[in-house]
């Protein structure tokens, strides 16, 4: 059966565009368009959609208020349709905290170039969201204890994620102490969102979190996040590990790509590396995680029950890339336990 989709947006033009995109895919079924939350409420009761698209700025009730009420009363997978602005990115990140599964940027109306790729992105995210475990709000994890003198400054933590990853990454980072190994993160996120996301994590965790810059050193207690539209990789510079950025072609359909980060770390960090692959659609990161394991690094994947979308971790497990498959709340502790070992990644 096709996934039933309800579009909630105050723009008639956007509703019409999304209707055409949805109706062009036999795996999706358009069940209606709502100009505001009150009409949406009635259509949800009438059609019981499998997934919603939701605008943030709407009359009578804004999208975040409606999302909050929806997740409390009738949890349904939601894909936010957001503007690429600082205000839009902050609202989108808040929506993901409230339980939205994913987001797409507002289409650039009147520009035919790139519209096919945009339509394919929306359809893929709607189908993934319809199958996802949406609407889950997780309790904040208990922070792990500081590691003290047992921690080697040579260790690096690497995290990759996609759909559902904003909240999953936050949960892992909330479990890490201020003296944790230097951490690098690649998340599939477009330009304009990664800076806001890093600033948000910097406020919410005990770590120093920021967008990565070319040449940044990777230091204990600090987290570098790949900027949207830039690959992040790591290389050795003397006694230091440093971050590098470029805009080489997309890998696995993504820039930044998790495989780019993981492959670079397999080459330069090897047994000093602790890598986690979290929730996400597709296969990005699986091959890189296998390279890390083969280089002697420690590898962990999020389990299916706690994933929003069990795509990337499943691919890694099937490749034999994963040493431990764990629920999300156990991953920070596993990484820190491994960091206490000075002998490398094959100890479990």
UniProtKB/TrEMBL annotation:
Catalytic reactions of this protein: [protein]-L-glutamate 5-O-methyl ester + H2O = L-glutamyl-[protein] + methanol + H(+); L-glutaminyl-[protein] + H2O = L-glutamyl-[protein] + NH4(+)
Example of a GO cellular component annotation carried by this entry: cytoplasm
CDD domains: CheB_Rec (cd16432), REC_CheB-like (cd17541)
Its EC number(s): 3.1.1.61, 3.5.1.44
A single GO molecular function term of this UniProt record: phosphorelay response regulator activity
Modified residues annotated as 4-aspartylphosphate in this record: 55
Domain CheB-type methylesterase: 150-342
Cellular location(s): Cytoplasm
Keywords, comma-separated and alphabetical: Chemotaxis, Cytoplasm, Hydrolase, Phosphoprotein
Record note on domains: Contains a C-terminal catalytic domain, and an N-terminal region which modulates catalytic activity.
Function noted in UniProt: Involved in chemotaxis. Part of a chemotaxis signal transduction system that modulates chemotaxis in response to various stimuli. Catalyzes the demethylation of specific methylglutamate residues introduced into the chemoreceptors (methyl-accepting chemotaxis proteins or MCP) by CheR. Also mediates the irreversible deamidation of specific glutamine residues to glutamic acid.
Protein family: Belongs to the CheB family.
Protein known as: Protein-glutamate methylesterase/protein-glutamine glutaminase
Annotated gene: cheB2
């Amino acid at each position: 059966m096709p996934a039933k989709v309800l579009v909630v947006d105050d723009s008639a033009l956007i509703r019409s565009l999304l209707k055409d995109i949805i109706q062009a895919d036999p795996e999706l079924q358009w069940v209606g368009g709502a100009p505001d939350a009150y009409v949406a409420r009635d259509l949800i009761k009438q059609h019981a959609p499998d997934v919603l698209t939701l605008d943030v700025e709407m009359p009578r009730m804004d999208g975040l208020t409606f999302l909050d009420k929806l997740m409390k009363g009738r949890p349904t997978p939601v894909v936010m349709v957001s503007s690429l602005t600082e205000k839009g990115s902050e609202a989108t990140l808040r929506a993901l905290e409230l339980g939205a599964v994913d987001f797409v940027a507002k289409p650039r109306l009147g520009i035919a170039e790139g519209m096919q790729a945009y339509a394919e992105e929306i359809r893929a995210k709607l189908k993934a969201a319809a199958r996802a475990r949406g609407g889950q709000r997780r309790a904040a994890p208990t922070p792990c204890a500081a590691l003290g003198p047992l921690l080697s400054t040579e260790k690096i933590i690497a995290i990759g994620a996609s759909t559902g990853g904003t909240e999953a990454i936050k949960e892992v980072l909330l479990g890490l102490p201020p003296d944790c190994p230097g951490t690098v993160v690649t998340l599939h996120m477009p330009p304009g969102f990664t800076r806001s996301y890093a600033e948000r994590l910097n406020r919410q965790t005990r770590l120093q979190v920021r967008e990565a810059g070319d040449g940044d050193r990777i230091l204990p207690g600090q987290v570098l996040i790949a900027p949207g539209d830039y690959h992040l990789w790591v290389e050795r510079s003397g006694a230091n590990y440093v971050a590098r950025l470029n805009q080489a072609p997309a890998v696995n359909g993504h820039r930044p790509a998790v495989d780019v980060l993981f492959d670079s770390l397999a080459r330069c960090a090897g047994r000093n590396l602790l890598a986690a692959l979290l929730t996400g659609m597709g296969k990005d990161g699986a091959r890189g995680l296998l390279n890390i394991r083969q280089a002697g690094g420690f590898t962990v994947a999020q389990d299916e029950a706690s994933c929003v979308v069990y795509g990337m971790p499943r691919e890694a497990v099937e490749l034999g890339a994963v040493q431990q498959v764990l629920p999300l709340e156990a991953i920070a502790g596993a990484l820190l336990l491994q960091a206490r070992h000075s002998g490398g990644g094959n100890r479990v």
